[in-house]
Amino acid sequence: MEQFNTNLHKEVKSNDGTFTAFSQKYNEHYHSTKDGALNESLYKHIIPAFELSKGKSELHILDICYGLGFNTLATLYYHKQNNLDTKLFIYSPELDVQLVKNLRFFHYPQEFESLTEIIKALSTKQFYEDENFTIEVFLGDAREYVKKFENRFDIVYQDAFSPSVNPVLWTQEYFSDIKKSMKENGVLTTYSTALKTRLALYNNGFRVYLNEGENYRNATVASLAQLPLKEVDMQHKIKCNPTVEPLRD
Ligand SMILES: C[S@@+](CC[C@H](N)C(=O)[O-])C[C@H]1O[C@@H](n2cnc3c(N)ncnc32)[C@H](O)[C@@H]1O
To answer: Does the global pTM surpass 0.85?
Structure first.
């Protein structure tokens, strides 16, 4: 029988009852097992991003990186649950071809049941389109991919493996390319609260905000614009940690 698990990726149940996976290559889970895979995706990325992007008829979303596809799929789930009529354009790079091809065998949460056809299309053809959604999974390097876009994205889900194991997707230069790809009022969400990450964003002119709530550990929202969230006082943080440096290429 065909199955998701290989010697590089293994399914693991997380605390909200949904499955994530463990990556042998990066020695990390794809999601926080404590916060739960679906829970983390919804509370750290989708809900804050959509709350802050109300009133737009189209949303262009960069999902870094596709992985198990939770952020893309939870976006579609949220859109359906809330009967939104916003047109969504989702772009998601992913380096791991074998992972993407095996996703049609992954045990997704029952919340994604109505997305089975989309999951299959993205796993086999890396493309899906209907009247509401256009989704492209790009098999290749996110660093190259993001350079193709200018002033495009309303939302960026920054959900790479941690800065310690995948530093190239957290550097100041990387966030400079991300900034160019975003609209002036775009919103970036990430689980990382590391000062190095926040500094790499701040040094590019992003304002840094705290994403906090009851169901999950603190996370970060960043934007070039002023947002109705608690802003992190970066000058104070730098003063308290004078030796801190952002990651660099
Ligand atoms: C933490 S996982 C993403 C989890 C995903 N957002 C989800 O909801 O399932 C990080 C992903 O980044 C991919 N990756 C690492 N470096 C990359 C790169 N330079 N370009 C594209 N993808 C990369 C890994 O293969 C992995 O699938």
So the answer is: yes
